[in-house]
Amino acid sequence: MLGAGGRLVILVTGGLGFIGKHFVQRCIELNHWVTNIDVVNYAADRVVKDAFETSANYRFIQADIATLDHLPECDVIVNFAAESHVDNSIVDNERFCVTNVLGVQHLLELARMKQRGDRPRFIQISTDEVYGDIAEGAHDETDRPCPSNPYAATKAAADMLVMSWARTYGLDTNIIRPTNNYGPHQYPEKLIPKSCARLTRGRPAILHGDGSYQRCWLHVDDTVEAVLSVVAKGRPNTIYNVAGDLHVANIDILRHLARFFEMPDSRAWTFVEDRSGQDHRYSLDDSRLRALGWAPRREFTRELESIAKTFDFKRFL
């Protein structure tokens, strides 16, 4: 269904998480009707939770996607809800299976049980990690998943569910696989905010292995625009990769941050044992998405310095 004036009615799950909250904010600005379902776990941003409540075109439901009892009316579901920290998945993989796999299955079933004409479109936010390591070149959407850790495996399993519900039950679906996201107000368990939190207090950042692991970095606002491009122009039952233009080794990110915090490299980081299931390099071909007119616009070094300058490690206390 469409709201007044052609506005979309968008159901966002995980809309207090990092990418989800930026997506919710942009949808509110675009005057869409937004229902945000979030369990409000340890990584939820309670600052934006209160701020969103002042918007007339927004409502919030605190619930777990794995036990949600009904699906609010909507045109499209955008599922950001997920456990996403790889380290946590290694020590507590069951929680990742419940949220990332069974939660998605439950959402798909709630969508399927709607009358065929009222079924919402289902957009699953996945990850580049489902593809696994690639020494050179880039994965495109036709490559088979080859996940290396429990987090990536649960996201790959969810993708398979989405594709099978589309084929078996006729749901209109998309899967979006972004690379590593960064940006303001990210929970400090990920590399950039965690490093800022430590460096702000004069403590060295943590580097796994030798720090040479390469990731393609994508500003969260660019990811939000990519998702909106798929909402507006995506082909039914199609996967879209989302990549930035810059591959950076973890140690080089810390060199940037060390210069900003005026710390010598010798004090800015310390090496720790490599994590299990570590991939050396991720890289995606996102030409399919760029054909829709999307391209990343944020410049990494400038945005990284902005994050460091405005970092507030007390936000999630």
Question: Would you kindly provide a written description of the structure presented here, covering whatever features stand out?
Answer:
- The protein is built from 11 helices and 12 strands.
- It has helices at about 20-30, 45-50, 85-90, 95-110, 150-170, 190-200, 220-235, 250-260, 265-270, 285-290, 300-310; strands at about 10-15, 35-40, 60, 75-80, 120-125, 175-180, 180, 205-210, 215-220, 240, 245-250, 270.
- The radius of gyration is 19 Å and the shape is globular.
- By secondary structure, the chain is of the alpha/beta class.
- Strand 1 (about 10-15), helix 1 and strand 2 (about 35-40) form a beta-alpha-beta unit.
- The protein has a domain at about 10-185 and about 215-245: 3-Layer(aba) Sandwich (Rossmann fold).
- It starts with 8 loop residues before the first strand and ends in a 7-residue tail after the last helix.
- The chain has a 7-stranded parallel sheet with strand order 3-2-1-4-5-6-10, sandwiched between helices.
- It is about 40% helix and about 20% strand.
- It comes from Caenispirillum salinarum AK4.
- This is dTDP-glucose 4,6-dehydratase.
- It holds the Pfam family GDP_Man_Dehyd.
Short structural description:
38% of the residues lie in helices and 18% in strands. The chain is of the alpha/beta class and 317 residues long. α2 links the parallel β2 and β3 (58-62).
